[in-house]
Specification:
This protein is an alpha+beta fold and 110 residues long. It is 21% helix and 35% strand. The protein has 3 helices and 5 strands, in the order E-E-H-H-H-E-E-E. The radius of gyration is 14 Å and the shape is globular.
Length: 110
């Protein structure tokens, strides 16, 4: 039986503001940026390639509705090449239900 290729899964954790607090090694495989280059930076580092309405809905789902956001996103690698990724962002809530952090997982190039 033929095995499916393993697809790297980028995982980052960030502040509600968008600042990246953690990134795994797949970040470099998918985006071309080293982990050290993304920690402390804003997630707009990938290029803001989507219309403003996309980001408005995404942040509304995460910050206001406090639900998991899933969808495809166009991004830019460090070398300027475009890629499409499957995005999954979950809000992390405190004991009072306030969004205190976000967790993002991206399945590599689609």
């Amino acid at each position: 039986a033929r095995r499916k290729p393993v697809v790297p899964r980028e995982t980052t954790a960030g502040a509600v503001s968008g600042k990246i607090l953690y990134a795994n090694n797949a970040v470099q495989i998918i985006t071309g940026f080293r982990r050290e280059e993304v920690i402390g930076k804003n997630s707009s580092l990938w290029g803001k390639q989507m219309p403003d309405d996309f980001y408005k809905k995404m942040w509304d789902d995460i910050k206001v509705k406090k639900v998991i956001y899933e969808g495809e996103i166009n991004n830019l690698r460090k070398d300027g090449r475009k890629y499409i990724a499957n995005l999954h962002i979950a809000p992390i809530l405190d004991h009072e239900g306030k969004v205190v952090q976000r967790h993002k997982s991206v399945i590599g190039n689609l």
